[in-house]
Specification:
single chain; GMP Synthetase, Chain A, domain 3; SH3 type barrels; 2 domains; five-stranded antiparallel β-sheet; three-stranded mixed β-sheet; 20% helix
Length: 176
């Protein structure tokens, strides 16, 4: 979640992202065995996810230089810059608002009603939190309790159709 991004990382990352007319959605730092993974998710101001690979590469190069200059990550790390994707990461309140009416998966920091993972329709988003329909029941979740969230994308056969490749009409004539 955007609110969980460490302040120092946000102060180094956000100006670079904004200099490319993008917005910072989320940052994940996966520690452990070297190399650590720093995943930065960016989007356009309108939130359409149309961030091209070249733009992600430019942001990555500049971010790498900025982070290395400040010795921001104390060990070897791998930097990944991407757009939110089909299963859009929901990191900011405006991301949740844009996902109203969609199927959403989220994980809470602590169990709510005995569980931490929920999937269902996002019904409402307010200043304090959100309301979802999960397993036929409505549930309110405060933003402070949301650890991770993303939309759920359901693939269809049309997703795999190649544009411009229509099947040829079958001829009634036998071919030899």
């Amino acid at each position: 979640m955007y609110q969980d991004i460490p302040r120092d990382l946000r102060e180094w990352i956000e100006p670079v992202v904004e200099s490319h007319a993008l917005e910072l959605v989320d940052v994940e730092l996966h520690k452990g065995r070297s190399p650590w993974i720093l995943r930065v998710i960016v989007d356009t101001p309108v939130g359409d996810g149309r961030v091209g690979i070249e733009l992600c590469a430019q942001v990555s190069r500049e971010l790498g230089t900025q982070l290395d200059a400040h010795d921001a990550i104390p060990v070897r790390y791998r930097l990944e810059v991407s757009s939110p994707g089909l299963s859009r990461v929901l990191g900011r309140e405006k991301d949740f608002a844009a996902a109203r009416g969609c199927e959403v998966w989220l994980e809470t920091r602590r169990p709510l009603d005995g569980r931490r993972r929920f999937q269902g329709e996002l019904l409402e988003v307010g200043a304090e939190g959100l309301r979802m329909k999960v397993d036929g029941a409505e549930l309110s979740i405060p933003f402070a309790e949301v650890a991770k969230a993303h939309t759920v994308y359901h693939f269809t056969p049309e997703d795999f159709a190649r544009p411009g490749l229509a099947r040829p009409a079958r001829s009634s004539r036998a071919r030899r």
